[in-house]
Every structure is written in C-alpha cells, then in structure tokens.
Design a protein that fits this description.
The structure is a single chain. The protein is built from six helices and 92 strands.
Length: 1463
C-alpha cells in the first residue's frame, strides 16, 4: 500500500551501539564505539525541527542544525511514504548558517506524517522525529477512486467487503431508548471475571444476576461456534501499550484447519495487517507457537476503538482500546536539596496506574519514589523523596500515547556544612498549582452523570420489555407442548465425500457434546437399537457382526474419518460410530427399512433413523460442536437427550413402553448414555470422567447395566447379560479403550482395562459366558509418546505375552518396511525402526494384533543450535570498566517450547537487581549493570527444548585499578646515605598488566609526601639515595595499570638512615611555681647533643610513693622550649619530673629527677576581684550581692550591715572563691551598707557594698502657678511622700502650650520643690506636669492648673450632678495557682504563682503547714503580684505540700501543690 524510505542503521553487523544523552530533549544518539578519539565527536542536534500544522497548498519546511566531527551527513525520511520525489520533497543545506532544510512546496494531505531526520558520521548517529499535520481544504473528487485503487493493489478489495458483527459507527441504526451497546457483551465474553463490575459500571448495567445469566447463555453459543474452527482458546490478554510505544493484545488457540482465515476489525470495519511488524503497514498479526499477537505501531488518538479478532465468521476475542487525556499536566518543580518534590496530574478517565519516567528511565514504587493514586483514580502523583542535585532532569507521565513532562530543578543547600550532608527536610516542593481535587470531582461528576443516564435508559427499556412479556404470557401457555429449549430442524448436510447423501430432519432437545471421549451401550436381542459411541482423536473403529444378527458396535471415527454400523440379519440396525473433527457418521441401513443410528463427532451431525414400530433410532452423541437429539417413543412422547459438558453430547435410549431412556450427564468433556430396558425402566449411564465416556448396557429383566467411569480420555462400556445381571466394563486408562466382546447368546463379553493408549477386548465364548482378557494373547509393554531428533534413528517396541503377528499403522495408514523404515519381529517382540527421522515421520503410530492394539505419538524435532557466525561473535570476550554495563546478545532460530537460561560461572542468573534478561522470539539479551571487578568470569547461554540443549560461552572481563602491592615492605639495606626497600606484586592486577610502581616518601615529623619516582613492573625494589643520616623515613608504594593507580602499601614503621644516635641528658628540671592545678618547670639543654640537632624534649612525671614514670607528651610531639606547665596534676599530691632530649633518632637519656613539688596554691592574703560597690533593688524583689575573692588558705567570711551583724533571715552562701548575700524579699528598711570581711592566717580584707531598696516614687503634691515678673511663672509643688525616704529622689518638670500642642521636658534633676518657667507669652495656654524620679523610674505626674488665655473664666456649674467615687479595693485572689513539680535530687527549682488584691496582700509561704518565709534555704520574691520561690539545690526534706497564703484587710486567698523529689 505504501512505499517507505529505508534508512539503514550505521552500526556494522555484530557491532554494539552505545546510547548517549543529548542536551536537546527528544534527540536519540547512538555511538558506534565506546571511546571516541581525541578531538572527534558523534553527531548531535543543536536545533531540532519543530512540529508543524499547515493548510493544504502552503509551503511547509523543517529546519535543523547539527554538529559533529567529522561533519555528519543529514538524511530525511517519513514513516508511511517515500521522500524521493524531487517535485514534492527538497533537501537543502546553507553552509553560512549551517542549517539543513527539508522543503515541501504546495503540501498535500497525504504528506501528513511523522518525519525523521538522521545525522550520521563514522562515530555515531543522531535521530529526531517531527510531526507534520496538514489541514485539508474541501472534498477531492479524485480521492475515493484513488483510495480504491490503492486497496486493489494490495489485494484487500475482497477482504474489506467483510463486516464484523459490531456495526461501524457510521452504519449504526438509531438506538432505541435504553438499548445496550453490543460492545458490552463482546467485551464481557473476552474479559476476566474481575473486570465484570468495571465494564457493567461503564455501560450502566446494574442487574448483575440477569447479566450473568444472559452472558452464560451467550458464552455457550459462542463456544459452540468457536469449536468449529479452533480449540484450546486461552490466555486472552486485553490491549495495552508497550514500552516501545506500540500497542498489542494476545491470545492462544489452535486452528483446526490451518487454512482458516483470520480477520481483524476496528469499530466493525476490517483493517489490513501484515504477518510481521515491519515498516510497510501499521498493523501486524504475528504467530509465536500457539500465541497470536496483534501489534499496532505509530499510535495516534484516532487509533482508539473497539478491536476484534475473528476466525472465519466467528469472533474469538474483543478488546476496547481507550485513550485518556491529561486535564491537568505536571508542572516544573524547583526543590531545595534534601527536600521532597511532587509532580501531580489529573486525567480524563479512571486509570489504576500511569507510567512514570525520570530521565528516560521507568520509575517504580520504592525507597526513592512514591507513586500515589487517588480513590477515584483520576489524580496521579509522583513524589521524588530526598532530592539531590543528581536528581534534576526531565520527568514524564505517560497514559497510553498521551504524555506530559516537566523539569525538576534541584538547588544546592548553601547553608549546609562544607563536606557534610544537610539535614533531611520535611517540606515538599512542587504540585500543580491548581485545585486538583476540584478538577477531579468535576470530571467524576461528569462520568457519573453519563453512567446514570445509561442506567435510567436501560431500566426504562427493561420495564417496557417486562410489560410486553406479561401481555404475551397467555399465548405462551397455550403453546406449552413445545420443547423447553430451542427445538430446531437440523439438516444433516454434506460435509465430505464419504458422508451419506440423504438428509433427515429430527425434532428434539439438543444436549451439549463432550470432547474426545466415547462410550456406547451393548446391543439387545430383540432388535432394539444399540447406541454408537463417539469418535476419538484421529483413529477409526468399526463394530463386527454377531452370529445371532445382533449389532456389532462401531468405534468412533477420528480426524475427518467415518464409522458406519453393519447390517443385522434380523432387520435391526447396526449403529455407526461418531465421526471426529469435521467428519460425519451415519447409521447403516437395516433390512426392515429402519436407518442405522449415526453418532456425529466434532462439527459433524448425527440423527436417529426411523424404526418399523414407529420409534426412531437414537443418535449418538457428537463431539465438539456436534448435535444430538432424543428418539421418539411408541406412545408419542419424545426421548430426551442428556445434557453434556464442554460441547459434548448425550442421548437417552428408547423404551418399549414409550417412556424415555434418560442419558447420564457427561463430565469434563466426556459422554454418557443409558441403555434401554424391556420393562420400560431406563438404563442409567455412569458419569464420563475427564474426557472419557461410559454407558450402561441393557439387561433382559429390565434392570440396568452400569458402565464404569471412563478415565483420562479412555472408553468403557458394559455388555448385556441374558440373566439380567449387569456386564461391567473396566475403566479405560490414558487415552485407551476397553470394550466387551460379543457372545453367541448375545450377552456382552467384559473387557479388561487397556493401558497406555492401547485397546484390549475380551474374546467371545461359545457358551455365552464371558471371555476375560489376560489368559489369552495380550500386550505386556505397549507404545508411548516419544521425541525423536531429526536425522537420528528412532525405535518403537511392542512386547506381547505370546508369539503372535501384528500390523503397524501411522495416522490410520498401514506401514511396511522400506523408505527408511524397518519392521521386525523377534518372537513376541515387535519393533519399528526409523533409520533417519524426518518431519514427515511425526504422527500417531499404532500397533494392532488381532483385537489388541496400542498406540503412541512420535514427534520429530531438532536440538536447538546456534549459527556459526553468531557463535563466533558471542565467544569473543566482553571487556568493560568498573561501573560500566556489560551487554551480551545471542540470536537463535525461533522455536516452540524453547527455554533460554543465562549462567555466570555455573550459577544461573535471574532477572532482577543489577541483572536484566530480555527474551525475544529470535534472540536473548543479558545486561549486567554497574559491573564490579568480582563480576569477571564465564558467561554462558543455554537453549533447551524437549529434544536437547545447546550452550555457548563467552568471557566477561571487568577492568579496574590493580590491588595494592603485597606487603610487608622489607628493608634490604640502610646506611647513612642509602635506604633500599623491597615489596611483592599485587594479587589482583585489575584485569590488565601492571605497567610500573610509584614510590613516595615522608620524613618523620613532616606531613608532606614527596614522589621519589617510579620503577618498571618487572622490578619490585627501590633504592633511596637522598637521605640524611639519623633521620627516619616512611615509604608508600602504588601499582599502576592503564585503568589507574592502586591503593598504597605503606611501611609499618619509619626506617632510619644509618645507625641510631641519641642525645645526652638535659639539666635537672627546676620547679618555678606551683598551684593546685599547675606546676611550672624549666631546665637546661644537654651538654652533649652527639652532633645531631635537638628537635625538642619529652617530660615525664612520677607521683610520690609510686615507681611508674608517665610521659606527658609523645615523642612525635616534642616540647620545643625549655620550660613547660604541667597541668595534669591532682590537688595536694606531690610529684617529681625528668626530661629527655629528642633528635631524629628518638628520645635520649633522661635527666636527673627534680625536687618533689606539691600541687597546691601558695599562701596569700585575701583579696576581692572586681566587686561592685552599689546596688539598687526594687522593693519586694530578692537582693543578691556576689563577691569573688582569692585567698590561700580559704578565708573565713563574715557579713555586716551598717557594721552590725546581719538579720537571721538574710542568707549567706559561700562557695569556693565566691560569697553571696541573699535577701529573699527586700523592703526599704533593708537599704544599708553591707560589709564583707575575709580573714585567713595570712591576713584579712574588707569591702563595703551600698544596697538601696526602693520603689517607684509616689507622685508630688498639688502644683501651684504664680507670676512674679512679666514672662516668668513660678511653678511650685508639694514634695513627694518618698522624698524623705530616698535621698536620691529628684523631680522632672514638663511643659505644654497651645501653640505646639506637645509636651516637652523643661527641667530635670531638680532637688528643690520650685521651678521658674521663662518666656511665658500672653494669649497662650500653658500646662505643667511635675514627676518624681529615683533609681526605679518616674512617678505619676502632678498636673498644674491652666495658665494663660482663659485662666480667669468663671467655672460652669454641674447643675447639681455630683460624681460618684469609685473604689478599687478588693480581697486577694489567686490568678495563677502553683503547679506540681518532681525535680531530681540536687537540681534547682522555681515555683511561682500570681496573686491579685487591693490593698496589696501580704504573701506567706508554707511547707507542710510551717512558714518558710524566714528560712534561708528558700529565696522568696514578690514582684507585682508574681510570687516566686527558688531552691538552689533540692534536698530530700524539701518534698511535701507547699501552700501560698495571701491576706489583706478585705480577705484571704490561698493555693497549694505537692513537690516530689526524685533520686
């Protein structure tokens, strides 16, 4: 239909391409070699073509700019067409702008397609796709004839005339209100049961009971139709979109006729397809073994629809391909490092899962990613957890062919510590920025509305149908004599050349047939009919004639075969076995004119003949889409046919009294029928089992003959006895048959159970008794199914219990020696030898000896094999570096039942983790990700099928840096000028040989490593000639190969050049000073340094009464000076010290020990350190006076108040080096000069601290104004009541005038009670405020009368209205109560509460009903009603009940709590 431009891949045969990432999104790059030469590069696009939508007839073009060295060539192509016509397509190149242009002048609709641009050079290829959409203008008259011509060229003209049972949308008749779409039933019949609810909800069906009932009926009808063309229909997989962008659905079945046609439909219209997914057509149907795979490429939105696969005119599978769209697409996310990023989207239809991609890799739920779906399956969310800078890139969401993508930008956390990770953040970045829930709810409401409308229509239609049915009920009642099922006239048509030409029409109930099993009842002496068993799998059997004229049953014909019954002498008919697999069986003719019953099998038909007495001959059960009907009775009633399973059949025999013979129910593709009795009672048939068949024989006394259950595709039948007792048939095993032989008296001879696909039957006795099988000739070792290798010999052996002749048959045809086959007989052993097996030798082989037979199937096939060239390429080692991926690919011929396995060093590899195994029909690939050095080894692929296995091996070599050289480093020689060292080669050379060793050196006491040079790989020693005598050196050695440097091997100890020269002892250390924390030492350098410079000293100490000397510094941390402060001492302990000099060789001899020194402070007179001499405290707060001092020995501390001993409620806390004076709740009377006195044996010291306890001052009294001279006003006021109590109190005056309307301070720090205001102008109002101020702050102001313009106005009376005085007094109340505390022992504790009251209440604290206000262990304060109690260190006896009591003149309030002290 189309001609497509072929663009060959630049990769050579067997060459592996490496995928590279382009900076331009949408560009696919394939690099041909792993490492590019210096200065060379693969092609890439710096500007890619842009998708274009243009009107028909316009000028269309694409532009692209490519780079690469050497300069790449650019080729353009399209998916569905040719671009070689220069009149329609022109490729141009502008060397100035480096632009490649692809032009289409006067573009036409048929040029709309997906175009590809390839840029190639010798190192790689870059490819990009672009879509051209053409808007069609008007209708073209030439379009329809042109399309018909194109279809005719591809031979689709006849094919496209076919139509699916689903009518195309354009041809759909107008639907009735509430009518259900036919797609609903087609989808249900191909869907899993778990999808029923979803499909019903989609089409608005709510009555599930009715749906299931009707669905089962439709399924039975469909299965009968399907059985005419296919078998073993299974593994139906609905259509889905694959990772490569194609869509496909799968199913498995076997065609009964390989020439049957397969058709594909979309929305009821046939679509053409190819046999392989190639470039020429959009649709493809491939067969892989039993599996049929429908694929569709280049997906577009118009590809959505209802797809069906039919064989001939029967539908096999239906699936609905839906396209969903994105209502809200994912947006770009900017996230900080260690923060979570969120991508969100909303789709148009519910979908359980989207495909998420990050940087072109599929993403799955795990530790790094969370994939969330809302309950309505409309909102989908991807959470990238713990974002790092490496996570930035493009992320995409795909729903079918629809997709959207956005960038994730990760910004580094600049606040993180250098070299360390920042803390994990709990915030999330991103989101869509819209109300997704609202959009989803609107879409869900829209879907629900459509669903409810369908439900209402269906409900209305069902109610109308119910009313119509009720109206027709009387008519149905009158016609109740009709059959319960759809009794239909069945016309036996001509199927093959051997079928009977006559056709018979029979009315009756049709039962369901069984697959592949058969059993028949014995014959009667009175001439009534004997039912014929069904045909069986490609075999043929016929019944022999009896002496008394009774019938010999015929076995079922197989595989398009035929079986017919012989004629009886007494006129009764001989039953014919049922034909199988599109065959036909018909009854032979009787002398009395009644027809012989025929058993139809597998798409065949069977009908009962008519008897002289008016009863008809029953038809045997047909198999697999066959039919069966019940015979007619003498009294006119009909004979019902038993219901079969799985397309099988069962029929009941006819009775003489007119009642019908019921047929037993067939089981699992089996068949059972009941024989007829003389007394009219029915003969029950045993249930057929697992593709078997069983039927009961007939007895003369009317009792029924039970048939044994057929087993596993076997056959068993019971014979008839003269005495009326049943003749039981043994159960057939494994596709074998057992039938009873015939006796002279007409009774049936029982058959023993046959084994292994063979047959066994009992012989006939003269006296009519049963001839049992076993003593007579029998098969002791029969045939079984075998597999034979093509070109190899095969042998089949049958062993008999006696020496007897036999014949061989293949697929029903006799075999003779010759043509590559030898048939031999050695006594009782019969052999068939195939000298060189060929495909034509496959088939069903059967050995027959008399009435005995055994059969087995031979299948010829090949052991899998590899192509020699592919095997040679695969055997070449794959060499990769550490961290790279290793890929192996092995082609092979597609085969059925082929198992592919990969092994590494004998261990089978499984898909998962770092191993990816891909299995295709014609090749398999192995990918090992992030290879390690330990992955080096043998890689083997094994192909295995039932005929054998073949293997191919390759080697994986992972290159890495070598391991470190083997140690230890040996010192070969050391002199004053040379150090020679030696080492061993590394155990692991990293996959490539070591080229050289690199040696570095570090001088002791230095941190710098210096490279000395390198030596070749053959030499593992090095001589260092640049050394200084007496100095020590460390060495480290590296091994180097083409992959890099190994880890280093370092010398365990430093190596000294020459012999060791130690310094002489320094002078005896002297103790300079001592304290309880430090002892200072000094010493003199050694007199003899032996000619080697001294680099420092080592100091050691020994505690008195011990013998151990302890080093205070390491030798590699020498003390460079000749004095040292020893701080590692215990107060009061005595020590002696010694010193050693350190040079390059180490520490020399130690000096004589110093005199004993005690770690204690020297005696000193007490002195105070930076004390404060003045302290102001607000009344009610606690007073804390802290004084630090130094003294040795510790002094005795005494505090005085105004040279008098302090009161007992004043607490003194003495600690080492500090003393505190604490007044818990201060009053003004506590203001005084406090003196601290420190005295020890050396002397004493005094210090005075003035403590002033005060409060905010009370406001001054009334303010008076008086003008003494013009422009001046004297302001006077009554002193504040606190003036006499506080000698630091002073006054502040503020002034306000009517001009500025602002208050400003005009006088400060006034210790007098008057102030003269200047520049007082007439006509302006003035006001004055006077404040009292002390160390605590300002008092409330005293307001002056107004001075100025209206100061002499007459006051206005208040008309007798007097103001009420307001009282603020109130009893105490607790605003915030005490809380429960449980502090550990020794910890500090704060306990607070809030109290209110006016006048201010007096607050008391109680512990266990004992007042603790004066206890010095508790520091109690009251600040503005906030009462606090502080315990410096909690003791055990501090536990108990604490109570706060507030009392004033108006009342009392209290609160309490408990304190529990923990250990």
């Amino acid at each position: 239909m189309f001609k497509r431009t072929k663009v060959t891949d630049g990769t050579a045969t067997g060459q592996v391409g490496f995928r590279k990432k382009s900076k331009v999104p949408g560009v696919m790059i394939t690099q041909y070699i792993e490492k590019l030469p210096e200065g060379k590069s693969h092609p890439d696009f710096t500007r890619k073509p842009i998708a274009l939508t243009i009107q028909e007839g316009k000028f269309a073009f694409f532009k692209a700019i490519v780079t690469g060295d050497p300069k790449p060539t650019v080729v353009w192509s399209r998916n569905n067409g040719d671009v070689s016509d220069p009149a329609r397509y022109q490729s141009k190149y502008d060397p100035n702008s480096n632009e490649h242009t692809f032009e289409m002048p006067h573009v036409k609709p048929d040029q709309a397609d997906t175009y590809k641009c390839f840029a190639k050079n010798e190192y790689g290829q870059a490819m990009v796709t672009v879509v051209l959409n053409v808007i069609e203008v008007g209708f073209k008259m030439t379009k329809a004839p042109q399309q018909q011509a194109e279809v005719a060229n591809c031979n689709f003209k006849k094919v496209l005339k076919r139509r699916s049972k689903v009518v195309p949308k354009a041809e759909e008749p107008e639907k009735k209100e509430g009518e259900i779409d036919p797609k609903f039933w087609e989808l249900l019949m191909s869907a899993d049961k778990k999808d029923y609810e979803r499909i019903c909800a989609e089409f608005g069906v709510t009555d599930f009971r009715w749906m299931l009932k009707k669905l089962n009926e439709m399924k039975r009808e469909r299965e009968e139709e399907q059985a005419e063309f296919v078998k073993n229909l299974s593994d139906l997989k609905p259509i889905h979109i694959n990772a490569d962008g194609t869509a496909s659905f799968e199913l498995e079945f076997d065609l009964l006729d390989p020439s049957s046609s397969i058709y594909l439909y979309k929305d009821g219209e046939m679509i053409p397809y190819t046999k392989e997914l190639g470039d020429k057509m959009k649709h493809c149907l491939r067969k892989v073994g039993r599996k049929y795979i429908f694929s569709m490429r280049d997906l577009m939105p118009e590809d959505a629809g209802f797809y069906q696969l039919d064989v001939e005119d029967v539908n096999m599978f239906s699936t609905d391909f839906k396209m969903v769209d994105f209502l809200v697409k994912i947006q770009e996310v900017k996230a900080m490092e260690r923060e979570d990023a969120v991508f969100e989207c909303v789709i148009s239809a519910p979908l359980s899962k989207l495909m998420w991609f990050g940087k072109n890799m599929p993403l799955e739920q795990g530790d790094k990613y969370d994939i969330e779906v809302s309950e309505d399956k409309l909102i989908h969310r991807l959470v990238v957890k713990d974002c790092m800078v490496v996570d930035k890139g493009i992320y995409a969401a795909c729903a079918g062919i629809k997709s959207c993508n956005a960038w994730l930008v990760v910004e580094a956390d600049k606040g993180a510590p250098k070299g360390k990770k920042s803390a994990r953040k709990t915030t999330r970045a991103g989101g869509s920025g819209t109300d997704l829930q609202k959009v989803a709810q609107e879409q869900q409401q829209k879907l629900d509305k459509e669903r409810e409308e369908r439900k209402e229509k269906i409900k209305a239609a069902r109610e109308a149908a119910a009313e119509a049915a009720a109206a027709e009920e009387p008519e149905k009642t009158a016609d109740s004599g009709a059959g319960k099922d759809k009794g239909a006239a069945v016309e036996v048509e001509r199927i093959d050349k051997t079928s009977v030409a006559a056709t018979t029409t029979v009315a009756g109930d049709s039962g369901s047939g069984h697959s592949a099993g058969k059993a028949s009842g014995g014959a009667k002496q009175d001439g009534s009919h004997a039912d014929a068993g069904g045909g069986h799998s490609a075999g043929k059997a016929s019944g022999g004639a009896r002496k008394d004229g009774s019938i010999a049953d015929a076995g079922g014909g197989h595989s398009a075969g035929k079986a017919s019954g012989g004629a009886k002498q007494d006129g009764s008919h001989a039953d014919a076995g049922g034909g199988h697999s599109a065959g036909k069986a018909s009854g032979g003719a009787k002398q009395d004119g009644s027809p012989a019953d025929a058993g139809g099998h597998s798409a065949g038909k069977a009908s009962g003949g008519a008897k002289q007495d008016g009863s008809h001959a029953d038809a045997g059960g047909g198999h697999s889409a066959g039919k069966a009907s019940g015979g007619a009775k003498q009294d006119g009633s009909h004979a019902d046919a038993g219901g079969g399973h799985s397309a099988g059949k069962a029929s009941g025999g006819a009775k003489q009294d007119g009642s019908h013979a019921d047929a037993g129910g067939g089981h699992s593709a089996g068949k059972a029928s009941g024989g007829a009795k003389q007394d009219g009672s029915h003969a029950d048939a045993g249930g057929g089992h697992s593709a078997g068949k069983a039927s009961g024989g007939a007895k003369q006394d009317g009792s029924h003959a039970d048939a044994g259950g057929g087993h596993s595709a076997g056959k068993a039948s019971g014979g008839a006895k003269q005495d009326g007792s049943p003749a039981d048939a043994g159960g057939g095993h494994s596709a074998e048959e057992a039938s009873g032989g015939s006796r002279q008296d007409g009774s049936l001879a029982d058959a023993g159970g046959g084994h292994s696909a063979g047959k066994a039957s009992g012989g006939a006795k003269q006296d009519g008794s049963l001839a049992d099988a076993g003593g007579e000739p029998g098969i002791t070792s029969g045939l079984s199914d075998i597999l034979a290798t093509r070109g190899q010999p095969a042998e089949l052996t049958v062993k008999m219990n006696t020496d007897c002749d036999g014949a061989w048959f293949k697929d029903g045809e006799p075999l003779k020696s010759g043509g590559g086959i030898s048939i031999t007989k050695d006594a009782n052993i019969h052999k068939l030898t195939i000298h060189s097996c060929r495909d034509t030798d496959s088939g069903l082989l059967r050995f027959v000896s008399g009435d005995l037979s055994t059969e087995g199937r031979i299948t010829v096939g090949d052991v899998p094999e590899f192509d020699e060239d592919d095997l040679h390429k695969f055997s070449k080692p794959v060499i990769v570096r550490v961290g790279q991926n290793a890929a192996f690919k092995m082609p092979f011929q597609p085969q059925e039942s082929l198992t592919v396995s990969w092994f590494k060093d004998g261990t089978e590899l499984k898909d998962g983790g770092g191993v990816k195994i891909v299995r295709e029909p014609n090749h398999s690939r192995l990918l090992l990700r992030d290879c390690l050095r330990s992955d080096t080894g043998e890689i083997k692929i094994q192909l295995k099928n039932p005929f054998g296995a073949v293997e191919a091996t390759s080697q994986l070599i992972v290159l890495d840096r070598p391991g470190p050289p083997e140690g230890p480093v040996e010192t070969v020689e050391t002199t004053s000028s040379v150090i020679e060292i030696k080492w061993n080669p590394p155990k692991d050379d990293g996959g490539s040989a070591v080229t050289n060793y690199i040696i570095e050196r570090q001088e002791r006491g230095h941190s710098l490593w210096t490279k000395l040079g390198d030596v070749s790989a053959e030499k593992t020693s090095f001589r260092d000639r640049n050394v200084t005598h007496g100095k020590k050196y460390s060495y480290r050695i590296y091994a180097e190969n083409p992959q890099g440097l190994s880890d280093s091997l370092e010398t365990a100890d430093s190596i000294m050049a020459g012999i060791m020269i130690l310094s002489g002892p320094p002078g005896k250390p002297k103790v300079v000073s001592t304290s309880k924390t430090c002892i200072n030492l000094t010493w003199t350098p050694p007199e003899d340094d032996k000619g080697v410079p001294i680099i420092g000293y080592q100091v050691e100490k020994r505690k008195k009464d011990t013998n151990q000397w302890l080093a205070l510094n390491a030798i590699n941390e020498p003390i460079e000076d000749v004095n040292y402060a020893v701080k590692d001492v215990t107060e009061g302990a005595e020590y002696e010290f010694r010193v050693s000099a350190i040079n390059e060789s180490g520490a020399g001899d130690a000096s004589p020990p110093s005199a004993m020194a005690c770690a204690k402070n020297p005696n000193m007179r007490p002195c105070f350190k930076d004390p404060e001499d003045f302290l102001v405290v607000r009344a009610g707060n606690s007073v804390r006076v802290k004084i630090s001092y130094e003294a040795e020995p510790p002094p005795h501390i005494t505090w005085l108040k105004d040279d008098e001993p302090i009161a007992p409620w004043i607490n003194v806390i003495n600690t080492e080096g500090m003393s505190q004076l604490v007044i818990p709740s201060s009053k003004r009377s506590d203001s005084a000069i406090y003196t601290i006195k420190a005295k020890n044996s050396v002397g004493e010291a005094f210090f005075d601290v003035e403590v002033r306890v005060t409060d905010e001052p009370k406001c001054p009294g009334p303010v008076e104004l008086e003008q003494t001279v013009y422009g001046k006003v004297a302001v006077s006021w009554v002193p504040s009541p606190d003036q006499e109590l506080d000698d630091r109190l002073y006054y502040v005056v503020s002034q306000h005038d009517s001009n500025t309307r602002m208050w400003k301070t005009v006088a400060d720090r006034l210790f007098a009670n008057t102030y003269t205001a200047h520049n007082i102008l007439p006509g302006i109002e003035y006001h004055f405020r006077v404040y009292a101020k002390n160390d605590m702050g300002l008092s409330d102001p005293s307001q002056s009368p107004t001075w100025g313009a209206n100061s002499n106005r007459v006051p206005i009376s208040s008309n007798g209205v007097s103001s009420m005085e307001i009282s603020f007094e109130r009893p105490p109340s607790i605003l915030v109560p005490l809380k429960v505390h449980t502090p550990p022992k020794g910890y500090q504790l704060y306990m607070t509460c809030a109290v209110r009251g006016c006048p201010t209440p007096n607050v008391s604290w109680y512990l266990n009903n004992t007042c603790i206000n004066s206890d010095k262990n508790y520091y109690i304060t009251n600040s503005c009603g906030v009462c606090s109690m502080y315990i410096l260190r909690v003791r055990e006896n501090d536990g108990g009940e604490y109570r706060v009591v507030a009392v004033n003149s108006l009342g009392k309030a209290e609160c309490s709590t408990k304190l529990t002290v923990r250990d």
